[in-house]
């Protein structure tokens, strides 16, 4: 029985090691904690059990989940202005398109101001 337990432990360690190797490799550069990605790769490669545990505890990105929807950490970090990175975003080709858009924005803002003034007048009454 002790031989089987040792073999089972080895299989578990090997599975953990492979999981952590794949996880380090597929993690986006710059999102790892404490050590750069290449450093984590060498740590996990050279120290299978200890390196894998260290990766899970101290190196994995903060938002990393164990599958499903938690895998959002593999994407590039969001930019300061995410609306610029949206696929299919309309970019004005000529200045006339921008002028029309700005005019519509001004009209909508004025409508919102009028509605807010009317609400304030109702609340005061």
Distinctive features:
transmembrane helix; mainly alpha; cell membrane; 125 residues
Task: Write a brief structural summary.
By secondary structure, the protein is mostly helical. The protein is built from 4 helices and no strands. The relative contact order is 0.08.
Q: Whole-number average pLDDT?
A: 79
Number of structurally distinct domains? 2
> What percent strand?
under 5%
* Measured distance between first and last alpha carbons: 86 Å
Total E-strand runs: 0
Provide the structure class: mainly alpha
Tally of DSSP helical segments:
4
Give the radius of gyration.
27 Å
Multimer state: single chain
Low-confidence stretches: 68-74
Task: Sketch the major β-sheet.
Answer: none
- The general outline is elongated
One letter per element, helices H and strands E, the order comes to HHHH
Task: Please bin the fraction of helical residues.
Answer: 55-70%
Subcellular location: Cell membrane
Transmembrane segments: 7-26, 38-58
InterPro entries: CLS_N (IPR027379)
Domain Cardiolipin synthase N-terminal: 16-60
């Amino acid at each position: 029985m002790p031989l089987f337990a040792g073999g089972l432990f080895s299989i578990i360690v090997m599975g953990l090691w492979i999981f952590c190797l794949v996880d380090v490799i597929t993690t986006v550069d710059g999102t790892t904690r404490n050590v750069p990605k290449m450093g984590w790769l060498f740590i996990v490669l050279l120290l299978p059990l200890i390196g894998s545990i260290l990766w899970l505890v101290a190196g994995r990105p903060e938002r990393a989940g164990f599958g499903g929807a938690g895998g959002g950490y593999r994407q590039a970090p969001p930019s300061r202005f995410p609306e610029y990175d949206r696929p299919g975003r309309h970019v004005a080709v000529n200045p006339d398109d921008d002028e029309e858009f700005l005019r519509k924005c001004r009209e909508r803002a004025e409508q919102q101001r009028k509605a807010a003034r009317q609400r304030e007048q109702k609340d005061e009454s």
